[in-house]
Amino acid sequence: MFWALFVLGHDCGHGSFSSSRRLNDAVGHALHSFILVPYHGWRLSHKKHHGNHGHVENDESWTPLTKSQWDVLVGVALLELWVWWNLGSMLAGCEVCFATLKFRCG
Ligand SMILES: [Zn+2]
Asked: Are 10 and 2 in contact (CB under 8 A)?
């Protein structure tokens, strides 16, 4: 249930819940308050996340490893990291984020 509320709030943050900015902010604030995630702070950092997705230095939500960090990972540690990143991506709903951006940005 919390995830569903977050997804609706996420849509509000992207402006895709309604064509009204006020309605998006009101619903997003209410939903995110219920799940204890400050809406406007999240909305601003999430906007920066989408603007810099996957960037080693500028993405606030997902910070990939640097080459030197990758170089020290071997075998099982690398496989474990790969599994957790892919699992995390699914749980974080990145596909929803990308679909939303693609829809909104053309
Ligand atoms: Zn998003």
From this structure: no
Number of domains in the chain: 2
Domain that holds residue 103: 65-106
Transcribe 52-84 into DSSP letters.
TTT-TTT-SS--PPPHHHHHH--HHHHHHHHHH
Distance 48 CA to ligand 1 centre (A): 10
> Is the model's pTM score more than 0.90?
no
Task: Give distance in angstroms: CA of 69 to centre of ligand 1.
Answer: 27
As a whole number, mean pLDDT of residues 7-25 equals 96
**Cα 100 to averaged position of ligand 1 atoms, centre (Å):** 7
| Tens-place pLDDT, residues 42-89 | 999 899 888 887 777 787 777 777 778 777 877 777 777 778 777 776
Is residue 102 domain-shared with residue 72, that is, in the same domain? yes
